Amino acid sequence: MADVIIIGGGAAGCFAAVQCARYGKSVLLFEKNEKLGRKLRITGKGRCNVTNNSTAEEHMKNIPVNPRFLYSSFSNLDAQDTMDFFEQLGVPLKTERGNRVFPISDNANDIADALAYEMKNLGVEVIHKGVSKLITADGAVKGVRAGGRDYNAESVLIACGGKSYPNTGSTGDGYTFAESVGHTVTELKPSLVPLVSPDKYCAELMGLSLRNVTLKLLDGEKVIYSELGEMLFTHFGVSGPLVLSASSHIRDMKPNRYTIRIDLKPALTPEQLDARIQRDFAENLNRDFSNGIRKLLPSKLIPVAVKLSGISPEQKINGITKEQRKAFGELIKNFPVRVSGFRPIDEAIITSGGVSVKEINPKTMESKLISGLYFAGEVIDVDAYTGGFNLQIAFSTAYTAAVNM
């Protein structure tokens, strides 16, 4: 019999295992993959954005769903504690733009391996089997069943992630376990996910990557997200860092509700852009419109921009009116992309929704329904924007659960 059983060998599960073992507890961790931390190893494009080097208050601002639930967890373990933890395990870290923290090596495997080595050093027993059910009696958890055998423990931690990236093992098992003992699971939706557009020109622009553009997400007429960065056109719509971040601000996806506007020249004011266009026009007075704007936009974007402008591609530049020119400048500052849906949840970085926070004690991460049962990480109904905030949630909730187990 173990003191603690942990279901899931991802960020939250491994972190909790290390903390419990440091407190002298015997730990049994179940991970159905052959390797620990599979999702952790591909986060941040394989670089692993470990946390965000900012205050707990700043983290709260970047958590749109149930941030107050995490107040105690962030008090127990904040970003600086997380950074200290990994550096003490021999993984030097660096802080980049937006306070994003990465290993100096830019290799996510260093983070996952550091956790795996520390678990091994502390005697955590890892069993590479999937758990099939929770064992409970008299309102308390007694253990788990895996591979046709029962394993007993005083405490069980569910830390098996969400439903995103199912090929890494995140197949929603945690939600099934929670529901099997009476917990409520809120609606599961993809978050930090590419967006689908009905605009045919997205497919025409497929593969075009835009850097240093400002993307705005509008809910009706209201701007609900605006950020400078990178994005990408795809056969289905749009993707890339700006789009993934924008997606987490969409709460209720309905046709024609959300629109993206891209400022293709954010460094220029409308007046400066108009002056720039006039200079380009002056150099190409006798050329066709489509040939006279070659220095202004990426070549792949020109046919689409010309079509959206309503100006004939063969129109001579010396025949373009001031109103047409101004409207073209407005198009460059507000390039439209309609949004009609999310890509599937298995393409999402995280899952929005999860075990209801009303049924978990925020000070301990223990179930309010089943004693001895704890939750950590993405399985809980909390999610954040990109920038290392989601991993910090995993580490902070895991630490809180571990200390209380």
SSE diagram, text form:
Elements: E1 2-7, H1 11-22, E2 27-30, H2 43-46, E3 51-52, H3 56-61, H4 71-76, H5 79-88, E4 93-95, E5 100-103, H6 108-121, E6 125-127, E7 131-137, E8 140-146, E9 149-158, H7 173-180, E10 189-191, E11 195-196, H8 201-204, E12 209-219, E13 222-233, E14 237-239, H9 241-247, E15 258-263, H10 270-283, H11 289-292, H12 302-309, H13 322-333, E16 335-338, E17 341-342, E18 350-352, E19 373-375, H14 389-404
Parallel strand pairs: 1-2, 1-9, 2-6, 9-19
Antiparallel strand pairs: 3-5, 4-5, 7-8, 8-9, 10-18, 11-14, 11-17, 12-13, 12-15, 13-14, 15-16
Helix pairs in contact: 1-6, 1-14, 10-13
Summed over residues and divided by their number, the pLDDT gives a mean of 93
Tell me how many strands there are.
19
Helix content: 25-40%
Largest sheet: 7 strands, mixed
Which structural class do you get from the secondary structure elements? alpha+beta
- Radius of gyration equals 25 Å
Any idea what the shape is? elongated
Q: In percent, how much strand structure appears in the residues?
A: 15-25%
Number of helices: 14
Cα distance, first to last residue? 15 Å
Uncertain ranges: none
